[in-house]
């Protein structure tokens, strides 16, 4: 009787182990299925986002409404009949084109800067560019204007 009782106990423990392993496999399979479905849903969502096209409406020179893709360039570029916006980063710096940045750094006054774009030069309203003054002062010293104007 002792032998059959221990055999019954062994069979019971073995059955419980097998049942626990089966449940573990079932849970693992469910997790894998859920991960696969989550990945598919994420892919579908990203595909939908990629197909979404944001458009920006503006007006051409004749006053006709036009639609164009919404990009940083479309917001910041100049148009005679459109609002020109600036894009500012978290540091408070405004995004400008590389050409505008170079023209600004190469200009000592607002008149010089505007002249690079073909805008009429304003002789009596020029204001010195502080960044240019700082750079010129560090190169030529406090009498930098004499060096620049050959005076």
Describe what this molecule looks like in 3D:
This protein is mainly alpha-helical. The chain has 3 domains: 1-51; 53-95, no CATH class; 97-151, no CATH class. The protein has helices at residues 2-51, 72-76, 98-106, 110-115, 130-140, 144-149, and strands at residues 55-59, 65-69. A two-stranded antiparallel ribbon has the order 1-2. It starts with a helix and ends with a helix.
Shape: elongated
Provide the helix percentage. 55-70%
What proportion of the residues form beta strands (DSSP E)? 5-15%
Q: Report the end-to-end length measured between terminal Cα atoms.
A: 121 Å
- Low-pLDDT regions: none
Order of helices and strands: HEEHHHHH
Q: Number of DSSP strands?
A: 2
Provide the number of structural domains. Answer: 3
Radius of gyration: 36 Å
The largest sheet is: 2 strands, antiparallel
Structural class: mainly alpha
Sheet with the most strands: spatial strand order: 1-2
Q: Number of helical segments?
A: 6
Arithmetic mean of pLDDT: 81
Short description:
By secondary structure, the protein is mainly alpha-helical. It has helices at residues 2-51, 72-76, 98-106, 110-115, 130-140, 144-149, and strands at 55-59, 65-69.
